[in-house]
Amino acid sequence: MAIWHGEPTTDLLNQGGAKCMPGHLGMVITEVGDDYLVGTMPVDQRTRQPFGILHGGASVALAETLGSIGANLVVDNSKFYCVGQEINANHLRPVAEGVVTAKASPVHIGRSSQVWEIRISDPNGKLNCISRITMAVVPVPSK
Description:
It is built from three helices and six strands; from the N terminus they run ααββαββββ. The chain is α+β, with helices and mostly antiparallel strands. The protein has one domain: Roll (Thiol Ester Dehydrase, Chain A), CATH 3.10.129. The longest helix has 19 residues. The protein starts with 9 loop residues before the first helix and ends with a strand.
């Protein structure tokens, strides 16, 4: 049974990020599972650091994008929205080229906060970054 509020599609999610950071960095949501999201990001001139490897900030941007999307899909957006409170990341191995793949899964879904884990793997499937984001669940202001 899916945890999502509504029935999200990859097309709809990708349209939402097309004209902001996810689109500029080439991020693509590729899968919406019952309780996880998968997305990809190229390792290219937009996402590399000067040493020629994936920039840690780009990995964190991918992690925050997936965690934020997941958190907001779980709540009723007519009543709540989710914003990032804290994010951390451990960069485990460099990636110089190809496409990284991230999988975001909830660790905790509460009334006022959520915690998501995002695992980012290199093109060979080896874990290169693990991240955790805490999201605040905020009521939509009454009009």
